[in-house]
Design brief:
With 249 residues, the chain is an alpha/beta fold. The protein has 8 helices and 17 strands. The model has no long low-confidence stretch (mean pLDDT 89).
């Protein structure tokens, strides 16, 4: 396995290299670059399997570098000290990231995930979704990346009907598509989707208000969504949900 570390700070690169060697289960070949220009040269000559990429460098940004790589075939892991909004964008795009200073346990998880995903990703589409999130677009074409065991899905947020907790997993119900089961809990998606208007109606349900057709008072309170889906409203959430729906009416 070949790993490329791109960061303008020598001490950060050297420290990350030592950590990769420490936590890696094999003996990766590791190369380094200190900026956009040298990073591009190394990508061409070294053909890495995994790239750790800093965002802010002396001769440009990690995004400047990526804009000059056509059809990237490597797994990408950003190393960043960026703010929470940028981190939310990474989560929407399902592109991995590590916060500086890098934690060895988190690095080990990222390496394991990247190694398992080599040759099984669509980085260009994920980068497009990341850029869309960072530009703060609010139109209906915004997307989220969802991954199950076998497949990566690029889903329009507007097409999501609701999300349902399934143990430590989350099941996405999507208009005109089969459900997608993702190995992350509902709370994580509540954090991502609540700022976009999604409503936690119940401890097991998160609903897209644009897909709600009516509120049925029977059975303690139920929402009827497009496609005839019915999801419960808990007593604790009832007043909040009804007030939010009235605001959108």
């Amino acid at each position: 396995m070949k790993i490329l570390l791109i960061d303008n700070e020598d001490n950060v690169r050297h420290g990350l290299k030592a950590l990769v060697q420490l936590v890696s289960t094999d003996m990766p070949i590791i190369e380094e670059a200190n900026g956009v220009y040298t990073g591009l040269q190394k990508i061409k000559s070294f053909s890495p399997d995994i790239v750790f990429l800093d965002i802010e460098m002396d001769d440009g940004t990690g995004f400047d570098l990526l804009n000059q790589v056509s059809n990237p075939s490597f797994q990408l892991i950003f190393t960043t000290a960026h703010d929470q909004y940028a981190i939310q964008a990474f989560k929407f795009s399902a592109i991995d990231y590590l916060l500086k200073p890098v934690d060895p346990a988190e690095l080990s998880k990222s390496l394991e995930k990247a190694t398992g995903n080599i040759r099984h990703s669509d980085l260009n589409t994920q980068l497009s979704i990341l850029t869309q999130q960072l530009s703060q677009k609010t139109d209906h074409d915004r997307k989220i990346v969802l991954k199950d065991i076998d497949t990566t899905y690029f889903i329009r947020i507007h097409d999501i009907l609701f999300c349902q907790a399934d143990g430590t997993y989350t099941k996405f119900y999507i208009a005109n598509n089969s459900p997608v089961l993702v190995s992350k809990n509902l709370k994580e998606y509540e954090t991502l989707l609540e700022p976009l208007g999604f409503l936690r109606t119940h401890h097991s349900y998160l609903a897209n208000p644009d897909k709600i057709k009516m509120y049925d008072k029977t059975d303690g309170g139920t929402l009827i969504l497009e496609g005839g889906h019915r999801i419960p409203v808990s007593q604790r959430k009832k007043d909040f949900v009804l007030s939010m729906l009235e605001k959108k009416a």
